[in-house]
Amino acid sequence: MKFEVDGQTITAPGLxxxxxxxxxxxxxxxxxxxxxxxxxxTPAHLAYDREHPESRTxxxxxxxxxxxxxxxxxxxxxxxRYVEMPEFSGKxxxxxxxxxxxxxxGQIALPTATMQQVAYMVDAVxxxxxxxxxxxxxxxEVSGWWVDPETEHLCRLRADGLQQKDxxxxxxxxxxxxxxxxxxxxxxxxxxxAAAGYSRGLNEIDGFWRDYVFIVVERDPPYGVACYELAxxxxxxxxxxxxxxxxxxxxxxxxxxxxxYSADVETLxxxxxxxxxxxxxxxx
Length: 284
Known about the structure:
50% of the residues lie in helices and 20% in strands. The protein is of the alpha+beta class. It is globular, with a radius of gyration of 22 Å.
């Protein structure tokens, strides 16, 4: 299997550095985010997203996370890609703004407050001894491709940080880096599926089972930082979910049928919190 991504010839299995993030996301192969769409919505939603990548929208939190990733993991790229937007006011401000935008075409402009926020978050991670040690001797933004032995489908990953034989680092921005807070975030965004899938994929690529460590930094002061590993039972759950979703993907790809919701009338149950709130209301 051979194809081109961002000027590099890709053969699976393999790890590759220097591939642009946008090029990676356009490349062939099943990704964790695609399996998330399949699991949280339907195969039809995944098929639509693949055919219409322009329909994806980036939230402000996602944009901030991307900026922090770039500043911490690709500092040289950061200085080229991002620029601080000055404030324009008064007579001639519209013309001045347009002239400034033309001069910085192709760069991502961030307001001063956001640039400062990114700087504070980067400083917080750099000052955390364990987080900085994990990043210091780590290859960053490493892309990988392999063929899943069970489904024979091409899969891909992009590791934030990769130590040769020991650790795969995943940098996350969040509103709550406490153990209980980030545990909820990990469950909601299926980070256990990413940890299990990446660990398995990296082993398929180069034969090394790595510890999967999250570096978590908060978006707001005091920009708390923590490092976490998932419990073995949660990694096992992530593995089961990843393989379940990949099997569904393989079946849809083989039949060329990407179903949406059920055609039957199904029983709908309200979430448990709705019944709890109703019971609480009856007490007063």
